[in-house]
């Protein structure tokens, strides 16, 4: 993330190092099949998919990721669209009417800080990269999976609709959508479950990161504004 202030970047680095000492050694990606909330989310997939399909059928669309972030991103070969619909654990009002069941399902996920629609176009890919923040785990949940592939730390995964994974994105990871259809996923950030003082410090770091970094602080607002502009004439149907 290019707009981190130097002292925030240093704070993140120290937090990441502390977390690795206390909580390192987990598989990455992490197994999810036995997690109760993941099973509930998978069970909610038909309702989530129905809301997305209705949205698209009515002519709905979401912003390009550079509009939401406020700066260009690294996708190649096609478009990448993204807009948050949960921010700091709360539904984003501008999207709540279109996606009530989706927001309700995601808010049952413990530690969820944010969730976004993420749409990678046919032939698109995100070259291998690393994230800066080990204090959150990344949730990826396939709504319409196409034939997209996620590679984390050299491990390649594909997903059927209603399947997902959790991974720590401070390791190298990449995404490729070689198929003919868009890949639609929910991209979430989960507060990493940590014990005692390490958990308390991590929560404080996440609050600082959100409040002091423009890409975090303004992302939901920018996305919502562009979402409203794009969908101003959306046909509302019951």
Describe what you observe in this structure.
With 238 residues, the protein is α+β, with helices and mostly antiparallel strands. The chain has a single domain, classed as Jelly Rolls. Helices cover 37% and strands 24% of the residues. It contains 9 helices and 10 strands. The chain has helices at 6-23, 36-43, 45-57, 65-69, 93-96, 100-106, 196-212, 214-217, 219-230; strands spanning 80-87, 90-91, 112-120, 125-129, 136-144, 149-152, 155-158, 164-167, 173-176, 183-191. The strands form 2 sheets. The protein has a 6-stranded antiparallel β-sheet with strand order 2-1-3-10-5-8. The chain has a 4-stranded antiparallel β-sheet with strand order 4-9-6-7, with no helix packed on it.
Short descriptors:
Jelly Rolls, six-stranded antiparallel β-sheet, alpha+beta, 238 residues
CATH architecture label: Sandwich
Q: What's the average pLDDT? A: 92
Tell me, briefly, the overall form: globular
Helix-and-strand structural type: alpha+beta
CATH superfamily: B-lactam Antibiotic, Isopenicillin N Synthase, Chain
Radius of gyration: 17 Å
Q: Tell me the number of helical segments per DSSP (H or I, 4 or more residues long).
A: 9
CATH topology category name: Jelly Rolls
Largest sheet: 6 strands, antiparallel
In helices, the fraction of residues equals: 25-40%
Q: How many beta strands in the DSSP annotation? A: 10
- Could you give the order of strands across the largest sheet? 2-1-3-10-5-8
Order of helices and strands, N to C? HHHHEEHHEEEEEEEEHHH
Name the CATH class: Mainly Beta
């Amino acid at each position: 993330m290019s707009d981190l202030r130097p002292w925030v970047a240093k704070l993140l680095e120290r937090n990441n190092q502390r977390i690795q000492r206390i909580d390192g050694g987990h598989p990455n990606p992490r197994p999810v099949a036995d997690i109760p909330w993941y099973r509930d989310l998978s069970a909610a997939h038909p309702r989530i998919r129905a809301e997305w399909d209705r949205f698209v059928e009515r002519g709905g669309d979401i912003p390009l990721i550079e509009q939401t972030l406020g700066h260009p991103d690294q996708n190649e070969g096609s478009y990448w669209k993204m807009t948050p619909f949960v921010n700091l654990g709360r539904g984003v009002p501008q999207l709540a009417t279109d996606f009530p069941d989706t927001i309700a399902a995601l808010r049952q996920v413990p530690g969820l800080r944010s969730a976004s629609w993420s749409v990678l176009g046919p032939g698109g890919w995100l070259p291998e990269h690393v994230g800066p923040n080990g204090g959150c785990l990344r949730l990826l949940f396939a709504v319409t999976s196409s034939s997209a592939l996620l590679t984390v730390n050299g491990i390649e995964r594909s997903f059927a609709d209603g399947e997902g994974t959790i991974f720590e994105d401070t390791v190298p990871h990449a995404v490729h959508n070689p198929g003919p259809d868009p890949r639609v996923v929910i991209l979430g950030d989960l507060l990493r479950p940590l014990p005692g003082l390490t958990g308390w410090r991590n929560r404080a770091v996440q609050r600082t990161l959100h409040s002091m970094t423009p890409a975090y602080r303004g992302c939901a607002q920018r996305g919502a504004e562009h979402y409203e502009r794009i969908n101003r004439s959306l046909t509302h149907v019951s």
